[in-house]
Predict the structure.
Amino acid sequence: MPKQEPKQYAYPARAARTATAAQAKRAVVKKVTVCGRVLSREERHGQALLVVADETGTVTCIAPPETPAQVNDIVECTGLVQAHRVQAEALRVLVPNRRAPTDASQWEQLVRAPEARAVLQKRAAVLAAIRAFFAKRGFTECDTPALVAAPGMEPYLTPFETTLIDVRGKKSPGYLVTSPEYSLKKLLTAGFERIYDVARVYRNGEEWGKTHNPEFLMLEWYRAYASYREIMDDVEELLRYVAKDVVGELVLPFQGATIDLTGVERMSVSEAFRQYAGMDPEALRDRDALFAAVRAKGYRPDEKERYEDLFFRVFLNEVEPCLGRRRPTIVYDYPAPLSALAKLKEGDPAFAERFEVYVGGLELSNGYTELNDPVEQRVRLVEERVLRKKLKKTQLPIDEDLLAALEVGMPPSGGTALGVDRLVMLMTDAADIDQVRFLPASTLFRGSGKN
């Protein structure tokens, strides 16, 4: 049998690291073994200077010029630390780089971008702070299903569809959740009074932009015997808690602005339309009055345009850009047609007990005093199903299990959903949601979605 030539690199199964890069730089005349990726190699005075990076930082290793290590190789270097550098007595390549660097994938960019990895580490700190916040307040974390039989009826959302196949080959339609809301409401009915979920949620058919990803992390929480007023207070307290814990400050730099979390502005939707759009809020009370007001402002809506579309013509162009610019703004009491899952205001059913939170141009949170009347909830779900049909959206099943839970009796409750990725953007001064997500969709599905 012919003798086989040994491989140049054997991909050893073990490394003998005794210090991180940060620890090695602090060592004084001490032998260490460091491991990491070679970021750069420079030949100087008959020596090879290798900048080696690990999760803690970088350290320079000085080796003989014949050392085989090249840029992007993962190496192990043993030697004495002198003047914050490792004088290599032994250096071996643990894993060779066999690929030319590209900009195609986020993970390839992270190889050479410790500052980008630091943002993602801060994401982990935000999640830890969220869980600590709710633990201190007696909430139970609920790990609700991502795969469900009925995903919700929101007319403008498109769920990801799949097929569930059992061992006998029987097929059932399934969906990835667009929100954990229905599951959490069933748990409220079951007797859990303070609950939250940090859930992966999925929305198809949407533009991938700087604040949108088809898969994202949503924090949802509910409190029995509370209203949207108490949930607004929760949001304020959560923002301050996370900022203090993760950043150490309540005044944050964000995209060239300064966001002060010490004070939160609250205004009704009616007040916002009066202040920022110069519109009489009485026009929000019915579709025809709103149509006339929108026309008077110079827009050209279609005669059959729905209330929702008329509202958002003005809101998105004239109101939303003014919200949360220097401090968080909570906008509350939304028109009833925009609030299918919220209770209507007592004494003024043209508006619902719904709020949204805006910070630094980010729409961060959306909450309600939850509708718990099963008859009214069915009526609204049917109306949304009819609207989906008009919009030529996929027809979805009504969650009869949710309605059954409401019939058993869900206590009066308040709740909200908050975008975790956007919260991380705020805490890290990130301009794009891709910066705060591990392996975002835009790098996994190349040529789709995001430009």
